Structures are given as C-alpha cells and as structure tokens.
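so my prof wants the structure for this chain in the tokens format not the other one, which i didnt know existed until like an hour ago. anyway here's the sequence
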Amino acid sequence: VYFSHCYPYTYTDLQMDLLALDKDPTMARRFRRRKLCETLAGNACDLITITSFSSDPASLKARRAVVITARVHPGESNASWVMKGILDYLTGASVDARILRDNFVFKIVPMLNPDGVIVGNYRCSLAGQDLNRLWDEPSRKMHPTIFFTKSMFRHLLDDREVILFVDIHGHSRKKNVFMYGNSETGGIREKIFPGLLCRSSDCFSFDDCCFKIQRSKESTARVVAYREIGCVNSFTLEASFCGADFGPLGDQHFTTRHLEEMGYMVCDAILDFCDPDQTKVMLVCKELQVLFPDDGNSDDVSDSEDDGAAAARRKKRAARKAAQKREREKTVAPKKKKAVEPGAEEEKKPKDKDKEPKTARGRRKAQRREPAASTERAATAEEGSEKLPEASDGDAAAGSDAKVSGKKGKKQQKATATKKTTTSKNRGSVTSRDKDSKESKDSKDAKPQESKATKADGADNTAGEVASSSAASGTVYRPSECDASVPLPLDIAASAAGITESVQDPLVPKPGGSLLPKPGGYNQSGKGGALSAP
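here's what i got, hopefully its the right format
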C-alpha cells in the first residue's frame, strides 16, 4: 500500500505520454521532442517544441514564443497534471489549438527535476538543493536542467520575441489556482494575463495573486526571467493541493480532470491575450484600474509565506465591492436620511439603574449592598440632628465599615464586630493607662476639645439625645469602643444590647454559620467555591 500527497505523476508516466505522441503520425507536423540535457543521475530532461512545422520558413521566423516549465519541485505532482492538459490541448485537433500553433512557437520543459521525482524527493534535487532558488547563477555540473533551460531561453530571445513565461507549481497551504507575477513599475500591464485567466476559469482566483518581488524570491524562475531575461509577462502558476473555496468548485477537492482543464484554460487565455480584437483585454484593463487606482501593487503574500492570506483576500474583495458600489451611486440618486430628534436617542437608551438583576448572583450582590445603603441613610439622619460634642474614632470606624464592599470590606467588618463584642464584655475593666493614652491622643488635635469632666457630665444627656434621634429616624445606635469610659444609663445600655442582638450584620456569621458558599451555590460544577468559567 502506498500513500501520496497528491495524485501521482511519475517520470515513467511522462515518458509514456511523450512516447504516445511520438508514435502518432499526425503529430509530426506539430510536435517535436528532443533531449535538453542529462541529469546528475543520467536521466533525460526532455524539451518539447509545438508549432505548425509545415509553414514556410518566413512565417516560422516571425512567430512569437511562449515558454512553459513545470515540476521543478518533485512533490508538486499536480503541476504535471496541469502540464498534461496543456500538452493535450496544444497537440489537439481543435480550431483554437491550430490558431495557437500557427501563430506561436511553444517551448515546453515538462519536468525540470527528473531525479527528484524518481527518488521521491519533495522539493530538492538529487544534490539536496532547491532548484527554484538557483536561476540567477546555475551550475552546469550541479544544476544542469536549470542551466540549459536558462541557456535555451536566452538563445530563443535572439531569434524571436518571448511574450509569456509560465512556471507551474503546486501550493500546499492555499486554495484555488492563482499566479505570482512581477510589478516594479506600479502599472497594470503585468496583471492583464491573470485577469484574462480569471475570466475564463471557474477555479482561478485573482484575489490570491501576488505581484510583489521579495528578496528571498529574487533567484526564482519568474523573477530572473523578468529582470535578467526581460520577459515582462513572467509568472508562477500555483495550483492548490486541496481545492477551491468559491464558485462551482467551492469546498470541493480538485481532481486530475480539474487540473487538466486548468491547462486548457491557460491556452484559452493565451489566445485571448493575443487576439487582434482586444475587447476582452480592454475590459480587464478597466477592472484593474478600479482595483489598483494608486500603485497597482497587490497586498497579497509571497510564494511560501501566506500568513494573513485570507485577510488579504477579504480586503481586496471589499475594495472591489466598494468600487462597484461607488459606480452604482453615480447613477442612482442618494436617499435622504430621516432626521432624528435629540430626545429620541435618549429614550432608546436603557436605564441600567432601574433594571433588576436577572441572575442569582446579581441579586445576592444587591442584597449585600442594602445594609451599606441603610447605614449611609442613618449617617445622613444623624447629621440633621444635634451634633455630638466630640466625634470618636470608633464612630468614624463604624461609618467607614458600612461603606466597605467586596472581600476586603467583609474582613474589616468581621474584625470590627469581633472587637465590639470583646469591648462590650470588658467595658467595666478600663485601666488608667487607657485613659491616659486617650487624653494624650486628644491633646494632639488642632481643634479645641471639651474637657474630660464636661464630657462625663454630658454623657447621659448625649446618649439620651442620640437614642431618641435614632429611634425617631428608624436607625440603630451602636456604642463604639471609645465610649467605654462613659457610663451609660441602665435602660439605654439594655436597649442598645437588645437592638444589637436583634439586628444581625449580614456579613458577620451567626453562631455555627459560615461565610463560604453552600455546595452548588456559586458555580455550575456543584462543588462550591468561587465562580468557575463555563
């Protein structure tokens, strides 16, 4: 059992196909085969010439040339299937094929790396080198196929004009069939042929084409043919190992039939490209001027680096839709927008404050905020009543405890409640040292304070006033730690103690209770604890 990355097309398959063409007697007038060179392993690298050989020598010399190569990377077998479609089309008996043979000379190298195909390499030659990075200075001994192909290209330019060069490859990370070209002048001339191919093929994507030249690609076939040899229309044709993502073949895997048809479409595009009736060419030029109004450069990625390729395609498609929309707006009058009243937008905005919490967690938070709000209202009511002669530190601490929220507020309020309980038990055992420290602390204040005797004399009246005002306003008066030195009347102390027992702080655990959530209370796992992400 054998597994292949794509549909296999071996060196033997190529030799069998070429042998069948050689044996056909009708092919003698249109097809010729010779050995370009020998590889490192001694295998033949074939050069195919297709044209109408029966014509007179003058017409043969006036014909322009087209150069097509394939399979420089052995693992890209889909390139050989596209090449097979080109060979079948050009050697066929159709009228379009005869027109192409009568007007052009096709020089074809169907397999540039026979040794790599035979030994089963994916990208390298028998010497372990990527032959598509050696076109700038190929070695006659180490890279004979590239050396002699480049030499053939140069000799061909001495005899006739080369209007097109196509190097066929396979792409393993992108979908569709597309081209890489060269555009250093910022024009649209180099994009016309891919535009024609896009109009004739259902699986060719112009949005995936790239026309930039990166430094790492300067030694590839298309760039050397463009810069060194002077072929303006020099392209790399990339066929996906997968399939198309649009059109009738969208989300389908390419078959060998689809790849061969792509070879037919390349030949049709050559026919349209050189047609004396340039109607299709002019339509493509208008579309390109709309797509590239500034510099004519594509935003797509390079040959092997396709990071963000999908984003680049979306960007170009959006630009094309925007251009079409602007053209439609020129012919259709714009509609007037309805005036919106200033108060209408405010009515639409939801009022978050009036909304009730929908989740159980939100309701628990709201319930926890209610004691703090009631304490703030109590503090406001006390400001309206008669002011105390002196604000103690315990009262300030009690007011700040009511405003604390969250985990830190829970700990502080719990500690404060514990201190209050301890102070109420030990209220009678206050030493003189505590009184001296209190007096020394009060003496440091900048504001004038009443004497300790005055404070003791008016303690009964003050406590009574506060208790009465608290009862009138519906709030609770809780004696603080610093009030331990002030003897309270028995009735007020008893009432305060009773109120303290009846009004239990929600954040202070009851005897035998716990602040931890019950199992299944906060999260969906039923294990308790903090809220877990779904």
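also thought this was worth mentioning. The radius of gyration is 45 Å.
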